[in-house]
Sequence to fold (139 residues):
Amino acid sequence: MKNAAAILLLGTGLALAGGASAQDPSPGRYSMQKSDTGIARLDTQTGEVSLCQEKDGQLVCRMAADERAAFEQELDLLTKRVEALEKTAKAGESVAKQDLPAEEEIDRAMGIMERMMRRFMDIVKDLEGSDPAQEPQKT
Fold:
């Protein structure tokens, strides 16, 4: 009976050990690697690398220097774009007023349109006055 219990325990232990080793731990979002100055942390989703150090019992992480420079450069670029857009928006009211034609240009355009309409109406009147039945047929 003791042998059966021992075999049962041994079998259960092997099954548990085999099951645990068969399952690979799923990789998390971060991958950690020890370095000379602390720990390098790789964000597997974004590719961002942070350098971490233990301070007062806590792990403090900062972006790597090259990523920080790229981040600050992008931030400066976006700040300049926002400032330029704000200037354009403020100046937009005065620009819109300047784009309108002057009174002389409007009068000239209306005069041209009026002459065109009068000529068109004269052509229509001429066509209405002529009777197609009275015109000689061309053969």
